[in-house]
Amino acid sequence: MRLNNNAMGVALVGAIASLPRVAAWGVAGHEIVATIAQIHLHPSTVEQLCAILPPYANCHLAPVAAWADKVRFHMPWSGPLHYVGGVGDHPSDHCDFGDDGWQGTPGHNVLGAVRNTTMWLEKGYEGAEEALKFLVHFIGDLHQPLHLTGRDRGGNSVKVRFDRRITNLHSVWDSRLIAKSLRTIPQNYTYPLPSRQIESALRGTIYDPYVRQIMYEGVLGRFRDAIDEWTVCPLPELSTRPYPLTEKLEQLPVRGGFFDAVRSSLSSWMRPRKPVEEAPPTDDEIICPHAWAAPMHQLNCDIIWPAELDDPNYQAQIATQGYLELDTPKYAGRIKDEWLVEELLAMGGIRLAATLNYLFAREETAVSPLYKLY
Ligand SMILES: *[C@@H]1O[C@H](CO)[C@@H](O)[C@H](O)[C@H]1NC(C)=O
Ligand SMILES: *[C@@H]1O[C@H](CO)[C@@H](O)[C@H](O)[C@H]1NC(C)=O
């Protein structure tokens, strides 16, 4: 029950936060993350976002959440920004999240992209709309664990079956598990919840009932006590690890000005920490994609990448029995029982909201990283 352990929040020893987990998503997954974020935005954050978002978005994050996937082909440079792969990483037998460096151009990955786009917005550079649309998407990708491994293109090249249909492991996590959940939501979530804050972020989509369920049974239920830890950045522990990233990222300006002001108003729930210089270049004390991603990456070895795929007899079995079926009690059933997908979606939404509130909430309202209803 790794999710439950997480939800209860392992006691924080020193400053390491307990285990976030997440994965990469199809359109619904990205929009669900964005909708959960929308629920937790401070009103003053929404005001600022309205000025940046395109008119069709109606001051809502979800309509732009899948934009980055649509432009991948016009903007080929942005492709590698959707994922990251550690050198030597090979789930399920060996999970290594960057201890030996990263595949591809240094810093040109989802961790660097979250840092770059938040910096872009914070500095108020030209092109805020593009940066915001990327950020909403990349924080979603960061929470799809298969976007955190380079093995077999994050599972895209690994054929499996789901409900007897041939698909691939990555698609199972991007969309099949979510689609299955959408088909099996208890009827009561088709009706509004008695919360204007939740209902006003819903837009009449097919996943509204799922968002209600994740909010009611997850954010307000089993995850409730872990939420504050999800938004913490546990720098000191990480600073002992080598972190080979680009000079480019190392040159990124350190936060200041408005951000410092917000930070000082938040100091009550921030923990003591070492100087920013010791953190991995993508991480600081407010926004830390590496620290958030590391425990989610580990899920690839713990549960996501089926060990059967590397069984020496598996190739021969494909000929007689077909590709490995994942819509089984042992796989999809366990993931559902542990609320793993829901936890990743909730975590992505909460962290996106916390990030945007840090960047945009007026100081006097920024007493907490989240606009909470509980
Ligand atoms: C950083 O983000 C901006 C805004 O979206 C983008 O134009 C730029 O190419 C990004 N740079 C890198 C190195 O990803
Ligand atoms: C909806 O129904 C489920 C069980 O079918 C129950 O666990 C849950 O508490 C109900 N939610 C609300 C908001 O009443």
From TrEMBL:
Gene Ontology molecular functions: endonuclease activity; hydrolase activity, acting on ester bonds; metal ion binding; nucleic acid binding
UniProt xrefs under InterPro entries: PLipase_C/P1_nuclease_dom_sf (IPR008947), S1/P1nuclease (IPR003154)
Stretches assigned to coiled coil: none
Keywords, comma-separated and alphabetical: Disulfide bond, Endonuclease, Glycoprotein, Hydrolase, Metal-binding, Nuclease, Signal
Domain of life: Eukaryota
Keyword Cell inner membrane found: no
Signal peptide residue numbers: 1-24
GO BP, sorted A to Z: DNA catabolic process
Transmembrane residue ranges: none
Database matches in CDD domains: S1-P1_nuclease
UniProt key word Disulfide bond: yes
Family under the similarity heading: Belongs to the nuclease type I family.
PANTHER family in alphabetical order: ENDONUCLEASE 4, S1_P1 NUCLEASE
Protein name: Phospholipase C/P1 nuclease
